[in-house]
Amino acid sequence: MKIPTLIVCALLAVTGCASFSGSGRDDAFCGEMVKFANATPLSSQHSVELLTNWPEWSKSCQHEGYQPGKDFCKWLVHNTSTEFAYGNIRRALSCLDPGANYAGGGHAVPSYLTGKIESYRVKGADENVRIEVEYADRIEGQPSKLKITAERWVLDE
User: Fold this and answer.
1) What is the structure's pLDDT at 131?
2) I need a labelling partner for 3 at 20 to 30 A (CA). Which of 13, 81, 93, 149 fits?
3) 81, 59 in Cβ contact below 8 A?
4) How far apart, in whole angstroms, are the C-alpha atoms of residue 70 and residue 47?
């Protein structure tokens, strides 16, 4: 009986770690992010902010009352990690630049992590949409934060 339990635990550990490797693009995450960004009306910007608190095992998402933000928040709450906030950050950043590694990779775990990255060319996003990812993780006394902002402007004729 101990061997099957050990095998299951090993498989969970391997598959759980693999999802946070930071390598490549997370198409499910990116698809939801792009859907949120492309819904942004002309000459405006909207944000969602995912807050996770592993010690209290809590997660919440703020959406400004904006319906596409509510939809994205609902997806984020159900499809992101409470324990590994830096994994959520890696997933979001992989959408902006799949080849870049801003948040460590593989078995590297950042001691703390803060930053803000933006892109005007995200795969699947409209050409007049900018997506910005702002993040903070492992800052003493603060919940982990992943803020995603989309802005749309009028294209020059």
Assistant:
1) 98
2) 81
3) no
4) 10
Residues facing residue 149 across a β-bridge:
47, 132
Question: What local confidence, expressed as pLDDT, does residue 99 receive?
Answer: 80
Q: Tell me the whole-structure pTM to 2 decimals.
A: 0.82
Write down how long the chain is. 157
Sheet strands (E) in 57-97: 58-62
Distance CA 66, CA 90 (A): 25
Can you name the residues that pair with 113 across neighbouring β-strands? 137
**CA 143 to mean position of chain CA atoms:** 15
Secondary structure (3-state) at 112:
coil
Pairwise CA distance, residues 74 & 8, whole Å? 29
Given a contact cutoff of 8 angstroms between Cβ atoms, the answer to whether 121 and 111 are in contact is no
Q: What is the spatial distance between Cα 134 and Cα 102, in angstroms, rounded to a whole number?
A: 12
d(CA 35, CA 48): 13
Mean pLDDT, the chain cut into blocks of 10 residues (157 residues total): 41 36 72 98 97 94 97 98 92 89 71 92 96 95 96 86
